[in-house]
Amino acid sequence: MLTLVIFLPLAVAVVLPAVPRRAVPWTWTAAALAEVALVAAMWAVHGTGGGVSFETDARWIPSVRAGYHVGVDGLSLPLLALTAVLFAACAVYSLRQTRRVREFAGLFLFLETVCLGLFAALDLLLFFVFFDLSIVGMYFVILLWGHGDPARSALKFFLYTFLGSLVLLLGFIGLYLGADPHTFDMVDLTRTPPLSGSPGLAGLTLLAVGIGLGIKTPVVPFHTWLPPAHTDAPAAGSAILAGVMLKMGAYGLVRIAMPMLPDAWRRYALVILIVGLVSVLYGALVALAQDNVKRLVAYSSVNHMGYIVLALGAAGYAAGGTDARRLAVTGAVTQMVGHGLVTGALFLLCGVLRDRAGSYDIGRFGGVARGAPVFAGLLAVASFAALGLPGLSGFIAEFQIFAGTIGAGAVATAVTGALAVTGILITAALFLRVLHKVVLGPPGELTPLVTDVRRPELAALVPLLALSLLIGVAPRALLDTIEPLSAAVVALVGR
Amino acid sequence: MMLPGWPGGLAVDGLSAVLLVTLAVVLAAVLAYSAREGYGPRFFVLMLLFAAAMAVTVTASDLLLLLMGWEVMGAMSYALIGYAWPDAGRVRAADTAFLTTRAADLGLYAAAGFAVAGAHSLGLDALAHAEAPWRDLIAAGVVVSALGKSAQLPFSFWLSKAMAGPSPVSALLHSATMVVAGAYLLMRLHPLLDATGWASTLVSWAGALTALLMGAVALAQRDLKQLLAASTCAQIGFMVLAAGAGTVGGGTAHLVAHAAVKSLLFLCAGVWLTRDGSHRLVDVAFGAGALALAGVPPLSLWVTKDEVLAGVGDPALLVVAFAASVLSAAYAGKALLRVLRPAGSSPVGLSQRVPLAGLAVAACGLGVLGLPGVAGEWRRLLGATDDVTPDVWMLVLSGVLAVVTVGAVVLARRVPEPGWALDWLLLERAATAGVVRPVFALARALDRFDDRVVDGAVRGVARAGRGTAALAGRRVEIRVDGVVSLTARAARWLAALARRPQTGQLHLYYAQAAVVLAVLVAVAVLAAG
């Protein structure tokens, strides 16, 4: 079942050349919606229990004990669902796409398989293969459908994140060699953490894994590939890049780094906390200075992902009560989902602006609410979701992160957590600035060009924001799924 | 229960019930009034969302739900202040109001974290029992948030900006309900404030000083709505003072009576702002409200304010509060001058006259909450443990002072309007110069740093990589290539050399074999030797 879910998009992509051109967008949309239904069904079957469901473990490269090992649990299910939903939204959003539709759809279907595979992988080598393929896929999306200076941005994105993946591979090899017997299997590595006898090597391995995943997350100072990649990527590409692919880094931290290197994670928890705090404040402040709305959202992603790193760092303080650390980890996973939905929506909205007026410069808009009231309403909801208004997903995630981080009981977590709280004030300022400059106030130079959202755009955006609202108002369905997983991770880190 | 493992929810007790009823009554009055003012659906949606958020805030039994209602109130306030969004000035005012209150809200976020650490619970009842350093931190966070939401010093300036919104919005949010949420929270968490020792003193002084200084600000205002806004800060100061002093009964009575008075005054101000003339009923209602605000006997605020003052123990605090009380009579007198101005008449519909009349009756009559029999019941309802009743001399003194002060202001028709008070103690300028500008400057500096240094380093690495490649291409590659071709040349030369002996002539081969044999023999002999 899980293998079918993972490879269905790829299968559709393979037969896509045989589909008549006009049916291509609809085939893509149908496949993406089928994925949503399948993942929802898997979630329903898995329920809110602990453990791994839909496990498949096949021989793949037996000489290095790497297998095709996939499965879902409380961490992967929300991210698989997020992936399916975001890809479906991009498919619907791109129904009016005219440039090289077949290739576009094929590439996105390929990327969907890659992203689903990564979140389901229970083998380091399999994880790494999907990790690298996602970079390749996104490189072509930016290169072929980008605007501005796509070749340069795509190359920068590729080289930077590919370098990150090589460092990550180094870390994986460290884990492989540290395990006895040597294996790439995540379940085995989690059960008996490798390198537990040699703290120096474990630290180096954590450094390699941390840098590899940190570049993808991204954390300051490894974030500068992100703004140009986003600025020049097509709207759907940005939505996937920010919504799904950034999560791969944070997901890897929870799935690989924390449970497999618990000693090192605890020892360097302060470093992780500080990296998270710096990302939060630095990302928010730099975002505040941007006039290009896509760069602004990109930097705000650095801020939002910083909260996740902060919370995961707090989870490494084993001294305090486990209830607070569980809260922090649950908040971090909730933040991954919430940020995916909201930032995906924000990038699609940026795409609408560019589609109409050909510009991302917030200084050239204003009073868009008159000519495009629905667009204005959606942008307002998405902005308030991003700044963490209660009732939307961002708040419930950030509240848990702050409460869990500050509440972890150590002086370091209390201080960094309390400082990180100021991030939500800066985020509020920058999103109000966007609303003020684009949506409200007197009309600007490009305002007459901005017509309201069209039906496919609306159909793509409304579900994303509706899900954010659902998580914000009734978070229990999501939290109850994550909770057993965060309890397990906290226990694994604390051993 | 929103979070698994963290109990919490909504619950109604006496204090919540009082606030819910106040909210419902003022909401009904304001919406009935607004129905005839030509607002679109957006206005009513936002007002109702606001009311729901306020209802959640006052019934929440844990910090999470409290904060949810609390922040949504702020967002609705933003949307309603900026209701006329094409006007950039109003949007800016909305930005200022939202960001100022959210800056204070950070205190509640942090307090929730401290509560997890110190009390292992988010429940409001558990906070007072938190362990030692955490309890003080929780109290500090709560106090900052409450002072911000209630527009107490030093956050008061946002309420001045909030006046950019429509008058009915001010009548509901910025006088009767949202702004008193801070005072409500402090009264609800009074046990926590008491447990720390310092927090109740701090809160008392913050309230008293706000009452005094914002009273002076109100007195200096020339715009009626600004005067009313500053007077709201000042009056909430009395409630905050009550929360600090622990007189929950008096503080809540003041809150309820003030809600009726102030929403009445704002609605009347709205009538004057949107029409050319006035209406007899509006003039009478405003007059009654202004007299109640002044604390003129036997109207409501005279009684409730004295109940608050009666609970104050510290003489210095009492002097400040009394001075603030006199100032309230002065600014109410200044507002009253507005009624005495001759104005034309304009029609006011029945659906607007009824709420105005109802609020006016409440504004005059809610003093009954202080009557000896009623006051006991009231405190029982609120679960208040204090048992303070104002002395007769205090009631007489404050009543006389109020009447004299109002009379003096009305007769003099002129009050001092110092610049610092007219400009709201320069608070907004201080915030702009001290916080907003430095943050924006830092943001721009970091943006340049990000571009030049952080990304510059990445570009530098890339350039270095390209440079190395070019260098390798020009220099190293030539050398390496040279070595390779040299090897090839040498091989060719050797091959040519090797071809030489292959002549095909047998005698030469024999000769060569003989030479090789001789050499081998020589080598063998030498080696053996």
Automatic annotation (TrEMBL), chain A:
It is an enzyme of class 1 (oxidoreductase). Coiled coil: none annotated. It holds the Pfam family Proton_antipo_M. Its EC number is 1.6.5.-. Residues 121-418 form the NADH:quinone oxidoreductase/Mrp antiporter transmembrane domain. The keyword S-adenosyl-L-methionine does not apply. This is NADH-quinone oxidoreductase subunit M. GO terms for molecular function: NADH dehydrogenase (ubiquinone) activity; NADH dehydrogenase activity; ubiquinone binding. One of its GO terms (cellular component) is endomembrane system. The chain crosses the membrane at residues 75-95, 104-121, 127-145, 157-177, 197-215, 235-256, 268-289, 296-320, 332-353, 374-396, 402-432. It is a multi-pass membrane protein. Keywords: Membrane, Oxidoreductase, Transmembrane, Transmembrane helix. One of its GO terms (biological process) is ATP synthesis coupled electron transport. The keyword S-adenosyl-L-methionine does not apply. It is found in: Endomembrane system; Membrane. Belongs to the complex I subunit 4 family.
